[in-house]
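Repro:
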Amino acid sequence: MPPSSTSEPAPAPLPRRKPRLPLEPFAATAAIIWGSSYPATQIALRGLSPFAAGFWRTLVGLVFLALVSFGFGASPIHPRRLRLAQWWRLSLLSLLSTAIFLTFLNLSIQQAGPVMAAFLVTTYPVFALLLAPWVVHEPVLPRRTVAALVSIGGAFLLLGGSHSLGGQASAQAVLGGGLGLGASLSFALYLVLTRRWTHAFDLDARTIAFFSPVFSAPVMLPLALLAGHGGLGINRLDSGLAVLWLGILCSGLAYLAMNHSLRRGQASRSSMPLLLAPVVASLLSWLILGVHLSALQWLGAAISLAGMFAANL
C-alpha cells in the first residue's frame, strides 16, 4: 500500500561534525621545529658563547620576520597604530619568549647537554596548564592537575639522576637542569599571556612574533659583548649554519605557527603537541651528536613525558 500523502516528511539528517585532529597542526609544526633547536644550539655553541648564540639567533629571526611582515606581498604591520597598552604587552612577551627564555635555554644546553635540557625545558606545557586557570581562567580538571604535577616530579627525577655522572659533570648537569626549568617557566608564562592578550588587545600572530626580537635584541647585545669567548664573532661554519637554522626556523617560522595556534584555540590544547619537542630533540641529538642519558635519567624523562601526555588528554 503506497504511503499516505499526508504522512510527515523524514527528518533532515543532522549536520556532520567536522572531525577534530588529534593534534593541533600549527602547534605540532612548532614543536617539531623546536625539537631540532636543541642539537642545533649545541652545534652553535661550538663557536659562540650562549649569549652570542642567543643574540645572533634573535637577529636572524628579526630579519626573517621583517621579510614576512613587510615583504612578499603580505599586508604590513602598522606600528603607529599600536596603543601604549599593546606596546608594553608586546615588550613583556618579547622578554619572556626571547631574551629570558633563550639565555636560560642556551646556558642549560651548554651545562646539561641537548637531551636533558630538552626534557626539562619542554615541561612548559604543564606549567602553562597549571597557570591557565589563574591567568586565562580556563577550567582544568583535578585529574589533569595531578598529571601535571607527576610530570614535574619526573623532571626532578631526571635532574636528580644526573648525580650518577659524578664530580664536575654532575654539578654542571644540576645547574643546567635548574636553568632549563627557569626557561620552562618563562615560556609557560609567555604562552598563557599570549592566549589572554591576543584577542583582548587585538595582537595577531605576526605582530607578536615580529616584536619578540625587536625588544629582546638590544637586551641581548650587551650580554653577548661582555661574555667574552670571542664576542660576537662566528669562527666556525657549522656554528654559522646552526644560527641560520635557529633564527629562520626556530625563532621565525615556529613562533608564527605557535602564535597562530594560540589564537585559534585554548592554550591547553596548543600545549599538547609540544610533547613532540623532546622526542625530536632526543632522536636528532642521538643521530647527530651521539648524546644519550643514563638509565635513571631516561626513567625520569619517561615519567615526565607520560605526565605531560596525561595532563593534556
